[in-house]
Amino acid sequence: MNKRIGVLISGRGSNFEALADSVAAGRLPGAEISVVLSNREDAPGIEKARARGIPARAIPSKGLEREAYDRLMVAALREHHVDLVCLAGYMRLLSPHFVAAFPQRILNIHPSLLPSFPGLESQRQALEHGVKFTGCTVHWVDENLDAGPILLQAVVPVEDGDTPETLAARILREEHRIYTEAVRIVLEGRYRIEGRRVLIHPAKGPEKK
Question: Which residue among the candidates 80, 81, 97, 110 is catalytic per the annotation?
Answer without folding.
Answer: 110
